[in-house]
Design goal:
By secondary structure, the protein is of the alpha/beta class. It is about 35% helix and about 25% strand. The strands form three sheets. A six-stranded parallel beta sheet has the order 3-2-1-4-5-6, with helices on both faces. A five-stranded mixed beta sheet has the order 8-9-7-10-11.
């Protein structure tokens, strides 16, 4: 049995922990790091693990794999320090790695300490296809369109000052992945994933606010001159956090299954 430690005790962490049983006892939660003592205590009681509010105490006894489920600031704050202990690092906040300087620091830390960084696919799929396309001699042309309800976008910096018609779809953003991550830091990990997997910092991102949307939807198109593809995904938003798709936590479960299995899918 292998052990994991979690950073974050919110909606994503709960969805992950509540469904860990699908891995048939191959993995168990050892500990969790959180900011709110009340939320942390409740999580630990529900999932029978040890809780910490102090990182140094947490990392001293952390599991084989540390999983970040707490957002971009947590990824930026803890990634390198976790890797320096030799533990594997799983991070759902892929938007953090669009920053080239930070990404290179993380890569160097993993190499220096002979460990690995894993970025789960989250609310989309096809990262293997995007990676394959990036190896061809021409940089692939990639575009991603995301469609979410108003609740899933409210509070984002990119929504400030925008008037959204509650009766019709509104394009609230169109531009680069770097600007998308800055404007919608909790909503656009999928665009960051597509950009990093395709090794293309110049993908086009379009975000649509759809008042009737029941799902968080994403459509990715790709063309590298030799082959092309179109992929479409939809997932129910997490009721406890509409900015996040339920499938994100499940993508981490799938990643752990891949890590522990002799038969791996790419």
């Amino acid at each position: 049995m292998q052990t994991v430690s979690l950073i974050g005790a919110g909606a994503l962490a709960r969805e992950f922990a509540a469904n860990l049983g699908v891995l048939n006892g191959e993995w168990t939660i050892k500990s969790v790091l959180g900011r709110s003592p009340e939320r942390l205590d409740a999580f630990c009681q529900d999932f029978h693990c040890e809780g910490f509010t102090d990182f140094e105490a947490f990392i001293e006894t952390a599991g084989d794999v540390v999983i970040e489920l707490a957002g971009k600031p947590a990824a930026q704050r803890y990634a390198v320090d976790v890797l320096k202990t030799g533990r594997r690092w799983v991070s759902v906040s892929i938007g953090a790695y669009v920053d080239e300087a930070f990404r290179q620091e993380v890569i160097e830390a993993a190499r220096d300490h002979r460990t690995e960084v894993h970025l789960p696919h989250g609310a989309i799929g096809g990262l293997d296809y995007l990676l394959t396309s990036s190896l061809y001699k021409t940089t692939p042309t990639v575009a991603i369109e995301t469609r979410k309800g108003l609740k899933g976008l409210q509070g984002a910096p990119g929504m400030e000052g925008l008037e959204v018609d509650p009766t019709r779809e509104t394009v609230v953003f169109e531009g680069s992945v770097q600007d998308a991550v800055a404007a919608f830091p909790k909503n656009i990990n999928v665009a960051a994933a597509a950009s990093l997997a395709s090794d293309n910092p110049n993908i086009t991102v379009r975000i649509i606010c759809s008042p009737d949307a029941k799902n968080n939807g994403h459509r990715i198109t790709l063309d590298n001159g030799l082959w092309s593809g179109s992929m479409q995904f939809a997932s129910l938003p997490d009721p406890a956090n509409p900015k996040t798709s339920i499938s994100t936590a499940w993508s981490v479960l799938a990643l752990l299954k891949n890590l522990s299995s002799p038969l791996r899918f790419f």
